[in-house]
Amino acid sequence: MHKTVPIALFGFAVLIAAALFGLSPESSNEDTNATELINVNSLVEIPPSPSVDQFGFVVGEWEVTEDIIRRNESLYIILSRFNVSPQKIYQIQQEASGRVNFNRLIPGQSYRIYSKQDEPRAFVWHYSNTDYVTIRWDQDDVHVEENRLPIEHREERTAAIIETSLYDAVDDQNASQLLGYKLSEIFGWEVDFFSLQRGDHFKAVYDNRYANGRFIGLGDIKVAEFQHRGDVFRAYFFDNGERAGYFDKNGNSLQKKLLKAPFRYSQRISSGFTRNRFHPILRQNRPHYGTDYAAPTGTPVIAVGDGVIIEAQRRGGNGNIVQIRHNSTYTTAYLHLNGFASGIRRGVEVKQGDVIGYVGQTGLATGPHLCYRMYVNDRPVNSQRIDLPASESLETDYMSQFLGEVYRLDMLLDDVNLEQRQNLALQD
Ligand SMILES: [Zn+2]
């Protein structure tokens, strides 16, 4: 459409000029060229740009059937139902082989069939929020294309006072539960998320990600505040290409080299570290050199820090055990696992947050739980009490750039009102 605008304006201007100079388009020979330019009929020949749907098909040209993949449905079954010939389906499979794996058709994924005059001519397999495969065919050819919908970021803000739990507070704001998880990750070293109190609060300015107008996930938290027992903490996201992460206003990293607990979500501690405790199975007093988390069987257990797996096997009363050596000082151990995550074996390097196994009750255990142990120079320490090493603070060279960000982000956050329900899209 906008192509026609300049031409129309130009034509209009020429008409005005003609009127001002008292010339009608036909009035003189010198104006022959001008009459051609301003001929309105020529404008009609410029077609308006057609509107296409999110997969690029011209709206109005196609009959569209949208459905979801059901149990035991294959590409063959679906296309046959739309009367695509077995020969054509075979040709499609040949063309797609090595590029698209139709064995990954999973119940619940959506697809579309595009037809013209009742004849199916294209299949769009929309297998994730953003990714899709388009197959078009005619009498002779088949074209297979892998595509991705553009992701749009919208800035949002959420604030809440905690009444019952962080989970409920986030839920009441209709925000993604990942927001609570990310907040507990960011503030995990300042705030003890196991002892949140009524009246604690958080504020956050962050991105939500959308594809085709649909919410597909949480993006980065840009700045957030957490108030716990009267102390207020702020975290600022900074990324200059060299260094990225969350920092306090002085440029100290909020991330630690080791997480406080080997879980993504808070889990209840059923038994703490003690030099002397009555062992329920051995029925005698024994020291407990770890922290037991009463988590359901199958709960993912994550590595608390980067390191190398030095043990991943079944060993007596420990059951399935993983040990990670983080550096020359710190080692952590994870006991009674139901099983190991794939690829976890001795000698493998892991990153902080990688899933290493799943909660179970193998070995000497009365119920599903994780026994988590930390060693400093091979001596057991209480992971709950120990002051763990922080990641490096921001380099001096980046400080002026960072302080500019802090100024900007503080203003954003100061704008977030705690009293009233928020979570408004700023754009759109
Ligand atoms: Zn234990």
UniProtKB/TrEMBL annotation:
One of its GO terms (biological process) is proteolysis. CDD domains: M23_peptidase. The lineage of its organism: Bacteria, Pseudomonadati, Balneolota, Balneolia, Balneolales. It comes from Rhodohalobacter mucosus. This is LysM domain-containing protein. It comes from the Bacteria. The keyword Protease applies. Pfam families: Peptidase_M23. Keywords: Hydrolase, Metal-binding, Metalloprotease, Protease, Zinc.
